[in-house]
């Protein structure tokens, strides 16, 4: 089998062929699926191995003391041979993995061959294809939890033990110093415990990540923003506890802890940072300094770890193994999310190159996983199913014959806020358009729409409208849950249909719409994805020009909070907010990138409706949609950046657009003039294109295949949130 090893004398890293370990009594033989690189502990060890002998001595004064004691006892020659022999040997790396039980030793009855387990220990959960793991250092993986997520079990236990040492209570405020892998997990565990968290790290990206994962505020240790956040959250008293999850030789973390901690607060050291405690500061506040020892009680006790002697639960509630099982349970229930921490997944055969990139800084990462042979790229019990993008089958020519001289007669199904504010004002005065009939479920709303916009008739009888051969097109602007069914019925009735987003809330609903297209031969359908018609965005795309390479697109949607009583909150019947309007943003991204997405990955912080959606396209382009509901109301709702080929397109809320380009003649820039009136998000142009298609019988403004692809991608977001893994958009044949 293969195993990652290091020579501490030379610093050499290698993947060696070594014998398969035997399956001893009291443990199991585990074939690795994923193992986790600790970018803190392991990289520190790798970096030390590359130092000179003097550098190694300075970094490990504890080992130097042992050497000096050996010199005094055994003499210099014997000690030298012993030290050199130990240094010039291969040592293993790794301590956190997930794998499948391949063989069960005697005395083991809680798992069987084929079970998925998470494993711990720097002697038993190594970066190797096979490991023998004693009973108290593995835990069964709950059903539905992906192996790549279960591989975080050990580092999760380290973070959990640190949080337990801090004894957090509901309503308290904590400071986490250091937002690497352990710090990010501590933030989530504290948040899940009802504690408000302030994070500290010099890396802005890690601060942003921690805030997405639940921290109330994060910032640089030298910034005044951190102190201001602590003062605001604690009423000026200081945090109840501080978790030191930082490394390095600076004493800044312990000094910051004393400054921001309240009187008689708790300071917990989880990482390996300098601890020159400023006596006055700690004495005056009588701070309680605690240490967190690795994964929990049992660590470094050979009787517990190797011989399997458990501690009675009445005396030791949380042991190494119980912490491991508890963290896996939190992962399985979605209370902790490790997927946003995965910066890179490397094949096990590329282990040496991966370590080199991490050490040299070429690979910036919070967490890196090794994927072992036999694992698919996104393997895992919790992998979301692929969403099939249905094929569009047409039954024949579908454009109905009509006289070019008579006006286009329209019927509206629904007359709510969006219809009366964003659609009907553009249609009421348009030449060649006749508002024939408005249908609503209540008589008064139909009468109001008739009076305000001049409909010839107002009714609650849907069947009469669908059976009226003089009506050319039907607008479906009802609540989301009825869109697919009303669209299906209108298509079967031979009408050209304009349906507001979403077209469908489920794959079955979408399939029903397409079955109506195939049955009737009527593919005259438009979904209200208006942003691609916005004049400002049209101009910006024209100026951006054709692409030659992959693009990166970022779309921030500051959606804001819903008012109390909004029917959008009825998610059981009307779908999520993103299901309702996310198609707008996916369609805009796909239109700008001139392709349909091939995969969707979505993550959501617990406790709110914010989403991060990553779309991947055939040419390698990506689009990231940040859909947030808890932002500042005064910030623009939609901002978009498209980057490719040395150019950047910027859209600011459909008010202004700009283009930056590094050309041969120097840096060029285009900035649109600010629109003199309200934002134009393309409704007027969209409706004009739709009416033209109805009048002439020409192609619909957006191909049906594109509408279906966008709808499928929107549905895949929910599937990805449930499954916790990227969702492939498979095209049906």
Give an overview of the whole structure:
The protein is built from 24 helices and 32 strands. By secondary structure, it is α/β, with parallel strands linked by helices. It has 4 domains: 2-151 and 336-371, Quinone Oxidoreductase, Chain A, domain 1, CATH 3.90.180; 155-292, NAD(P)-binding Rossmann-like Domain (Rossmann fold); 408-530 and 683-701, NAD(P)-binding Rossmann-like Domain (Rossmann fold); 532-682 and 713-731, 2-Layer Sandwich (Dihydrodipicolinate Reductase, domain 2). Helix 3 (61-74) crosses helix 4. The chain is elongated. The two termini are 42 Å apart. Residues 378-384 have low confidence and may be disordered.
Number of helices: 24
Q: What do we call the CATH topology of the largest domain?
A: Quinone Oxidoreductase, Chain A, domain 1
Can you summarize the main beta sheet?
A: 10 strands, mixed
Unreliable segments of 5+ consecutive residues:
378-384
Give the name of the CATH architecture of the largest domain.
Alpha-Beta Complex
Instruction: Supply the CATH class of the largest domain.
Output: Alpha Beta
Span from first to last CA?
42 Å
CATH homologous superfamily grouping of the largest domain? Medium-chain alcohol dehydrogenases, catalytic domain
Content of β-strand: 15-25%
Average predicted local confidence, pLDDT: 87
Structural class: alpha/beta
